[in-house]
User: Which sequence fits this backbone?
């Protein structure tokens, strides 16, 4: 909720805006960022984050040499990664709307990895590959997978995101995008990696999380605003996505000074 920085790190950063908006200022300019966008910030540069109102970001620090070592895990169709890891200027990375939910989840998983286990490095390698597998380079060519954007799926996602509080059914959603329920379910799985129901559950959990961070409402009211009338069901769904109870967010917020952590 307040300006963060200046910060400087020998590691490069991936910064994803999970909610709200912010701008990142560095010595050579400013990088505005909105919800759903991810930026690459090179190492050894000084950055200041200036949020507009409340913003939630997920930041992943990556050792440059570790990242370059991971290129051998990726196919030759991803040449932009080497260029990216060696770049000296910050840049936004393009992510298709249909992939943002997956990217949010993968980044969240990466930040929660156990770093002291015997297979920690292997888990980190796999996690980093999954993240970059969802990001498009500036040319619009995807990494690790073909371009799977589909107009009906994109429209279905827009409808869900703009009406989380509605009592959705697959039949109703499919009818609004002129597909059969089976077609919509199949296309959703192909283009987002999940069913419409799971996408809706995760989208509701993300919005509920944002409401709790903003501190405007309590858990029950946040659940109701995103379409869950049963607080217990909302709490279970939230825990599935974020790995903690929604009440934990409220408890953390009451003890927070108001400043974002060093992202």
Assistant:
């Amino acid at each position: 909720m307040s300006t963060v920085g200046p910060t400087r790190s020998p590691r490069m950063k991936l910064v994803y805006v999970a909610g709200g908006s912010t701008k990142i200022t560095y010595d050579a300019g400013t990088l505005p960022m909105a919800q759903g966008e991810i930026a690459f910030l090179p190492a050894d540069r000084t950055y200041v984050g200036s949020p507009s109102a409340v913003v939630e970001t997920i930041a992943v620090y990556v050792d440059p040499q570790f990242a370059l070592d991971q290129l051998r895990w990726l196919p030759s169709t991803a040449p932009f990664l080497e260029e990216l890891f060696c770049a000296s200027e910050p840049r936004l990375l393009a992510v298709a709307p249909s992939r943002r939910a997956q990217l949010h989840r993968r980044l969240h998983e990466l930040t929660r990895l156990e770093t002291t286990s015997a297979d920690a490095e292997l888990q980190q390698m796999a996690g980093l590959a999954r993240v970059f597998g969802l990001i498009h380079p500036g040319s619009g060519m995807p990494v690790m997978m073909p371009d799977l954007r589909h107009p009906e799926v994109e429209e279905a996602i827009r409808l869900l995101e703009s009406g989380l509080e509605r009592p959705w059914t697959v039949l109703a959603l499919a009818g609004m995008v002129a597909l059969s329920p089976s077609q919509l379910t199949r296309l959703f799985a192909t283009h987002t990696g999940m069913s419409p129901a799971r996408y809706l559950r995760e989208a509701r959990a993300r919005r509920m999380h944002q409401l709790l961070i903003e501190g405007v409402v309590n858990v029950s009211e946040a659940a109701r605003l995103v379409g869950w009338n049963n607080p217990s069901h909302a709490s279970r769904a939230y825990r599935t996505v974020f790995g903690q109870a929604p009440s934990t967010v409220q408890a953390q917020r009451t003890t927070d000074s108001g400043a974002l952590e060093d992202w």
